[in-house]
Amino acid sequence: GPGKDEKTAALNNPAPIAGWESERRIPVLNGNKDGSYGRKMKAIMQGKSKPLSDQEIELLSNYISSL
How many CB atoms lie within 10 A of CB 23? Predict the structure, then answer.
């Protein structure tokens, strides 16, 4: 269902980052972390990504690539 994987619109907000190149995805994940990226779900995404280190962001991006 929605939010289960990045190919599906999370909570009715389309953000299909799974098909993106890792180099494009990492700045988005970092933007989620620092609050500079996102629309309606910005606060939720920032809360979930704020504790992640740069290495964890990169690993998450690589994991999304494997989905």
Answer: 8
Per-residue pLDDT of the chain (67 residues; tens, 9 = 90+): 444 454 444 555 555 677 777 788 888 889 989 988 888 888 888 888 899 999 998 998 888 888 7
Residues sharing a CB contact under 8 Å with residue 47, sequence separation 6 or more, in sequence order: none
Largest CA distance in the chain: 29
Classify residue 31 by burial, with Cβ atoms within 10 Å: 0-12, 13-18, 19+: middle
Q: 31 CB contacts (<8 Å, ≥6 apart)?
A: 37, 38
